[in-house]
Amino acid sequence: MKKAAASYNTKPSEFDDPRTIEAWALTEASRRLVLAASGTAEELHFALHLNQRLWSIFQASLADPANPLPKEIRDNVLALSIIVDRHLLKRLADLDGTKIQPILDINRSIAEGLKLHSSSPPPETAGEQPFPSSANISV
């Protein structure tokens, strides 16, 4: 278990594929959300704000006309980002950590898609979960 926790805290190197870095960022932000959901309101607020900043970075990149992704993919991820924004704003308003599952689900889906399309080889993680477990988080 200690090894899995360490892998989430280990930042990718600057030489990693950008998709690998983005997948790590989503996974790390979600891990922090899961931990904060059972912590204090301040911890949850910080984790929600971190997720919000991350998605704002994605939105700015996707809205850039120079972004090399196909327009359809950019539009689809931007539409998802609007959904994430709505959920994040609701959670920031009430700080109810039991209602973060939709955010985790979207983060997980995007991170897994990025990992599938990464040019970096997957890390050696035998026996580890690829994403933080949220089994005790109810919607």
Q: Estimate the strand proportion.
A: under 5%
**How many DSSP helices?**
5
Q: Termini, distance in Å?
A: 26 Å
Number of strands: 0
- Per CATH, the class of one domain reads Mainly Alpha
- Decide which structural class fits the backbone: mainly alpha
Main beta sheet strand tally, sense and closure: none
Averaged pLDDT: 82
Q: pLDDT under 50 segments (min length 5)?
A: 1-8, 122-139
- CATH architectural label of one domain: Up-down Bundle
* Global shape: globular
What integer value in Å does the Rg equal?
Answer: 15 Å
CATH topology of one domain: Four Helix Bundle (Hemerythrin (Met), subunit A)
Helix amount? 55-70%
> Helices and strands, in N-to-C order?
HHHHH
Describe the structure.
The chain is mainly α. The chain has a domain at 17-111: Up-down Bundle (Four Helix Bundle (Hemerythrin (Met), subunit A)), CATH 1.20.120. It is 65% helix and 0% strand. The chain has helices spanning 2-9, 18-37, 41-63, 71-94, 101-116.
Give a nutshell description of this structure.
65% of the residues lie in helices and 0% in strands.
Output the keywords.
mainly alpha; 5 helices; single chain; disordered N terminus; 139 residues; Four Helix Bundle (Hemerythrin (Met), subunit A)
Chart the SSEs and their pairings:
Blueprint: H1 2-9, H2 18-37, H3 41-63, H4 71-94, H5 101-116
Helix pairs in contact: 2-3, 2-5, 3-4
